[in-house]
Design goal:
heterodimer, A: 345 residues, alpha/beta, eight-stranded parallel sheet, 38% helix, globular, B: 138 residues, mainly beta, five-stranded mixed sheet, four-stranded antiparallel sheet
Chain lengths: 345, 138
């Protein structure tokens, strides 16, 4: 699906000339509740548990509260993500985790989405209690600006393809909302954030951010989730885009060798990924010029990518930066068309 | 499954006597040398099959792998496994790639196919004809 009349032009490569701004869709813009907002939406009973859990932001940062730092005017649509979603996984109390997600969604509906019609919301769910999460998805999906479901890491120590999470996947398919997976390696996320074990430094966390996405992708494929839900779309975010080619090379060849183990999977994994999976560009790798696009091409091409700025904040990646490292003809699908097809008008 | 390598002598143009039919146990795969090529000859029920002992994927000794019924499942029914005993499959011992024994087609890669050969049983003897490829019916 391609938006009619989309005005997308690559920014000048050398930055020396100025052109009309690019019209784009930003698939990741973070917003976070302030402490008073969190307390208010959580209610006094649950909020009384929070100080021990050290969840409250101590210093305001960009994106705290819905009104701060509006996305640039050139952004036609902006998908708002709850910041620090992965912190939910560190919550041991499953009921509190579900309440935190509920509070975040209530806040999203009341404080964020009414501000501008171009803002599209994310339904945050805690994975501790999949059935409760599914109910939350079905209820929030009724809001027309809610356009995706966000999960981060996993609370039950299984990949998102495991049948234990089936209620969440089923609810996404039923409501026709993409299931967005955030890499979930925030330092306090705790369990199962990286494949070899928990990491201790921010450096490790940043570099290994793609690991949990690989694991979830393999889980979704091998458990036949895309065969069970042929219209399901999954967005993998926060781990960059270079890793997918390597995984698909290994996955496709090994799939042929172990197919008797998973006869319910009928398509070659790379074909499944091309149809069902998208990666956000944020945070994009700083690779040698031209090399990144080659890897994405091997993995399936520009249809896989949706631009996300990761804003607001110092580490946000403006659309010009992404366009500068990708082929010019990829601009329209990556910064506009793919996201439009994924999230709708 | 039992395998054994025997050099066969040609009993006609590209025609080889693999042995007595009643010497094959059900499910047996016998790897033999027929001229310049190695052939796996298998018996499943009353049917005999013959195929080239070379995996088209990476050149592995295909017929030394596992001979088993085709495994299938209803689409999307994770955790459900059905065996199609009418459709034997050979798995290469190197990487596990599977081929339909009757047609030679790779199950998960339609571009790949291993050669199959006609097998006949005459007067209790099993003969393989390596001059012709068996026509796939699938």
């Amino acid at each position: 699906m391609k938006a009619e009349g989309a005005q997308v032009r690559a920014e000048p490569r050398n930055g020396s000339e100025t052109r009309a701004p690019v019209a784009y869709i930003d698939s990741i813009w973070y917003a976070r509740m302030t402490s008073p907002e969190l307390e208010s939406y959580l209610g006094p009973e649950w909020a009384s548990l929070l100080p021990e859990l050290n969840l409250r932001p101590t210093e305001p940062s960009p994106g705290d509260t819905a009104g701060e730092l509006s996305p640039p005017a050139e952004a036609e649509q902006v998908v708002v993500w709850p910041r620090d979603a992965a912190a939910l996984t560190s919550i041991r109390n499953p009921y509190l985790a579900a309440e935190l997600a509920r509070a975040a969604n209530e806040w999203m509906v009341e404080q964020v989405l009414p501000r501008e019609s171009r803002l599209l919301g994310s339904i945050l769910v805690a994975t501790h209690l999949p059935q409760l999460a599914a109910e939350e998805i079905r209820q929030r999906a009724q809001h027309r600006q809610m356009r995706q479901v966000v999960v981060a890491s996993n609370a039950l120590g299984r990949t998102l393809g495991h049948p234990v999470y089936r209620p969440i996947v089923e609810a996404c398919a039923e409501t026709a909302l993409p299931l967005a997976v955030e890499s979930g390696t925030v330092l306090d996320a705790g369990r199962e954030a990286t494949a070899g074990g928990s990491v201790g430094t921010d450096l490790e966390r940043r570099v290994l951010a793609s690991e949990s996405l690989m694991t979830h992708l393999l889980g979704l494929v091998s458990n036949g989730v895309f065969e069970s839900f042929p219209d399901l779309r999954v967005v993998l975010s926060g781990g960059g885009i270079a890793w997918l080619a390597s995984v698909l090379w290994r996955l496709d060849v090994n799939f042929k060798g172990v197919h008797r183990e998973i006869p319910w999977v009928t398509s070659t994994p790379s074909e499944t990924v091309a149809e069902h999976v998208r990666l956000t560009t944020f945070p994009i790798e700083e690779a040698p010029p031209g090399e990144l696009a080659k890897l994405v091409e091997f993995a399936g091409g520009p249809q896989l990518l949706v631009y996300g700025s990761g804003g607001p904040g110092d580490d946000a990646e403006p659309v010009a930066r992404i366009l500068a490292v990708l082929p010019e003809e990829w601009a329209e699908p990556v910064v506009h068309g793919n996201a439009r097809a994924l999230y709708g008008d | 499954m039992e395998t054994r390598e025997v050099d066969l002598s040609e009993v006609g143009p590209a025609r080889y006597d693999v042995g007595a039919a009643d010497g094959f146990r059900d499910g047996e795969m016998r790897v033999v040398r027929a001229g310049r090529i190695e052939v796996g000859v298998a018996r499943l029920g009353r049917t005999f099959y013959a195929l080239h002992n070379r995996c088209p994927h990476a050149g592995g000794p295909l017929c030394l792998g596992r001979l088993a019924p085709h495994v299938k499942a209803p689409i999307g029914a994770a955790g459900t496994i059905d065996l199609d005993r009418m459709r034997p499959v050979i798995s290469c011992p190197w990487h596990g790639w599977e081929y339909d024994v009757a047609t030679g087609r790779a199950l998960m890669d339609p571009k790949l196919r291993v050669r199959t050969y006609p097998v006949v049983v005459e007067e209790g003897r099993v003969y393989v004809d390596t001059s012709r490829h068996r026509q796939a019916d699938g």
